[in-house]
């Protein structure tokens, strides 16, 4: 039983309600009454939020549901995400307000670089960059790839692309060549932006080398722009690669590029995420619905105000960064911190020093980060002043109550709202929160609390809604602004993966429980998807990476619990005949996968076996492996082809215990 489940019956009097808040607390019952109104008058509700954005042309139809599940929001409306995030503030009193406080990783007794960009600076940079992209002959609807470390050029290129109506696809800079190539091929990107390297834990990650390798497996990319970051020497291919600073020297300083009037339902970006089988799916997000959802959540969930300093510790390469580093905070004219490197480099208190130095007031972070800090010890926190913090949220995976309590005490000083926001790449923005509708509901450690206004969420099984306290599947019962347009290039898969299991509802792929107060407890993935340190990785992807190793014939991967990372992978491999199993080979396989997939692939162990539990039709029964791994009953194995395979897995465990 998970920690979450064991806490379900927490007596009401022990629910934690902070005393000194700006956000008003509300009784969950009262909130749910209001919430019901927003569901009953759903379109009116969303219209009222969307109206707060600036549209070049107002929409004619709020929701087009003529071809479900391919819903279109705010049809007929025209807007531009770059205009909303940059120009609007440039044209207001916020012109000289700091937008980005960027801190580089390198450190000699203090950060070596802190760069502050005002909305005026951002306006200039985005326009110059858009001017440059335009000079490549790119036009509306063309795709570009972005493979950059956490430097200001990353949001700038995203905003510049949006300005021109280009569809960008950002690839997390921790992914390796194959993953980058797959994504660029699928998207058909014409141009790729990268850097000469990125800083990570004091070392340079050679991004350009990875790009060179990836482009050997790609035909669509004709041009590469390279940002100078680390100064490392890189190979430049003539006619293909150019340095950004060389190109920029040709761009007038006061360049201005008229923002395209894109349609509300025009794609803003494609972001790849892992699924149960097959290659990662390109989730396509629209413009109008997406910006509307970000507006709602920045205002209500984060209670963002002009005096705040906001910091989301994610990487822009993931959806959290797209929504809550780039488009959300900038849409609202926030001042935000963007940090380049590892949160605990060079010392475990790097992140606390950032809070103190920049007086961060709103913090958005992850359970894995919190558990890492916990392990490093509270002295790293108590030596700093964190009293500027007034609101905290976490995201990415379930937060265990122990970690929640620890962070609530040390950083939240037992008095600030601290929630675990549930959402996913597909939803575009936050769906379930402790601060829905701009109110705080009493906090229960480990829960995700209540759906946002306008968002319909339920826990169901094949028979329908489950009773409160019972485990089921999480579904979203109404279309929402920010929902995917489709899976890029594969609309059938979009229907199949999300809309077929529970007709009429969006299937999220998570197990959940709803308690007697209506609070949601998201328990974890119900499919073959792992969450390693909050990063979403398909078991299938890791298996594909493993079998590319010349010594491996077959592989099965399952997730096993990990104290810090929440979950890590465990591999069972069958070696090719004649290959000797030994520790050296294990290390080599580990390195091989990290090099070929990316360092986010963390294996607890790699076991050598001669058989894998499979069904008669040849499908690997991961359920059986997981059961052995967690020492629980293996259940029905009548479809198993060869029972001896289970003993092999058992022995593999004994051997390494
Ligand atoms: C999966 C989506 C949303 C941005 C980061 C992850 C898990 C996410 C929580 C939370 C419990 C959570 C779910 C979900 N998840 N947030 N607060 N509590 N689980 O986006 O990579 O698309 O992953 O992350 O399992 O399905 P993603």
Automatic annotation (TrEMBL):
Keywords: ATP-binding, Ligase, Nucleotide-binding. Its EC number is 6.2.1.1. Coiled coil: none annotated. InterPro entries: Ac_CoA_lig, ACAS_N, AMP-bd_C, AMP-bd_C_sf, AMP-binding_CS, AMP-dep_synth/lig_dom, ANL_N_sf. Residues 541-619 form the AMP-binding enzyme C-terminal domain. Residues 31-84 form the Acetyl-coenzyme A synthetase N-terminal domain. It catalyses: 3-hydroxypropanoate + ATP + CoA = 3-hydroxypropanoyl-CoA + AMP + diphosphate. GO terms for molecular function: 3-hydroxypropionyl-CoA synthetase activity; acetate-CoA ligase activity; AMP binding; ATP binding. Residues 94-479 form the AMP-dependent synthetase/ligase domain. GO terms for biological process: acetyl-CoA biosynthetic process from acetate; carbon fixation by 3-hydroxypropionate cycle. Belongs to the ATP-dependent AMP-binding enzyme family. Plays a role in the autotrophic CO(2) fixation pathway. Activates 3-hydroxypropionate to its CoA ester. Can also activate propionate, and to a lesser extent acrylate, acetate and butyrate. This is Acetate--CoA ligase. It comes from Metallosphaera cuprina (strain Ar-4). The lineage of its organism: Archaea, Thermoproteota, Thermoprotei, Sulfolobales, Sulfolobaceae.
């Amino acid at each position: 039983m998970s920690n979450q489940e064991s806490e379900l019956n927490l007596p009401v009097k022990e629910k934690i309600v902070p005393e000194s808040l700006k956000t008003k607390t509300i009784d969950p019952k009262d909130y749910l009454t209001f919430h019901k109104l927003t569901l009953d008058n759903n379109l009116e509700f969303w219209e009222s939020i969307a109206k707060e954005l600036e549209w070049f042309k107002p929409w004619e139809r709020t929701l087009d549901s003529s071809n479900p599940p391919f819903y279109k929001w705010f049809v007929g409306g025209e807007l531009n995400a770059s205009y909303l995030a940059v120009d609007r503030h440039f044209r207001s009193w916020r012109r000289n307000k700091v937008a980005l406080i960027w801190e580089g990783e390198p450190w000699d007794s203090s950060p070596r670089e802190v760069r502050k960009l005002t909305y005026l600076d951002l306006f200039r940079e985005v326009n110059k960059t858009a001017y440059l992209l335009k000079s490549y002959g790119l036009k509306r609807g063309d795709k570009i790839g972005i493979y950059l470390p956490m430097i200001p050029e990353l949001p700038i290129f995203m905003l510049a692309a949006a300005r021109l109506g280009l569809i960008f696809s950002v690839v997390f800079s921790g992914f390796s060549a194959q993953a980058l190539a797959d994504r660029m091929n699928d998207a058909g990107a014409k141009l790729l932006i990268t850097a000469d390297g990125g800083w990570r834990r004091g070392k340079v990650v050679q991004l350009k080398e990875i790009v060179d390798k990836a482009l050997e497996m790609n035909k669509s990319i004709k041009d590469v722009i390279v940002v100078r970051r680390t100064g490392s020497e890189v190979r430049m291919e003539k006619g293909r690669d150019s340095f950004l600073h060389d190109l920029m020297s040709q761009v007038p300083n006061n360049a201005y590029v008229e923002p395209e009037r894109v349609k509300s339902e025009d794609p803003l970006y494609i972001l790849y995420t892992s699924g149960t089988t097959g290659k990662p799916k390109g989730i396509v997000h629209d413009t109008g619905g997406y910006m509307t959802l970000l507006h709602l959540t920045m205002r209500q969930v984060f209670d963002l105000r002009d005096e705040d300093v906001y910091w989301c510790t994610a990487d822009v390469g993931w959806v959290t960064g797209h929504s809550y580093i780039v488009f959300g905070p900038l849409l609202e004219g926030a001042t935000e911190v963007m940090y380049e490197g590892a949160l605990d480099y060079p010392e475990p208190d790097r992140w606390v020093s950032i809070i103190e130095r920049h007086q961060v007031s709103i913090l958005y972070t992850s359970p894995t980060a919190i558990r890492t800090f916990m392990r490093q010890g509270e002295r790293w926190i108590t030596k700093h002043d964190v009293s500027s913090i007034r609101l905290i949220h976490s995201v990415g995976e379930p937060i265990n109550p122990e970690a929640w309590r620890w962070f609530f005490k040390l950083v939240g000083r037992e008095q600030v709202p601290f929630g675990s926001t549930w959402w996913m790449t597909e939803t575009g923005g936050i769906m379930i929160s402790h601060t829905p509708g701009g109110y705080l509901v009493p906090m229960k450690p480990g829960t995700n609390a209540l759906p946002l206004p306008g968002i319909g969420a339920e826990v169901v099984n094949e028979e329908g809604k489950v009773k409160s306290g019972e485990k089921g599947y999480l579904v979203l019962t109404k279309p929402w602004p920010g929902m995917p347009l489709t899976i890029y290039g594969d609309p059938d898969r979009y229907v199949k993966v999300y809309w077929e299991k529970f007709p009429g509802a969006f299937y999220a792929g998570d197990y959940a429980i709803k308690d007697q107060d209506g609070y949601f407890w998201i328990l974890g993935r119900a499919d073959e998807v792992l969450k390693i340190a909050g990063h979403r990785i398909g078991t299938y992807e890791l298996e594909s990476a493993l079998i590319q190793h010349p010594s491996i014939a077959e592989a099965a991967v399952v997730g096993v619990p990990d104290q810090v990372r929440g979950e890590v992978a465990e591999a069972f491999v069958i070696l090719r005949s004649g290959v000797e199993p030994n520790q050296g080979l294990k290390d080599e396989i580990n390195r091989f996968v990290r090099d070929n997939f990316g360092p986010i692939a963390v294996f607890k162990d790699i076991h050598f076996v001669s058989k894998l539990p499979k069904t008669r039709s040849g499908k690997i029964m991961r359920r059986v492996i997981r059961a052995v791994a967690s020492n629980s009953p293996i259940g029905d194995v009548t479809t198993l082809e060869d029972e001896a395979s289970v003993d092999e897995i058992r022995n593999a465990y004994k051997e390494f215990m």
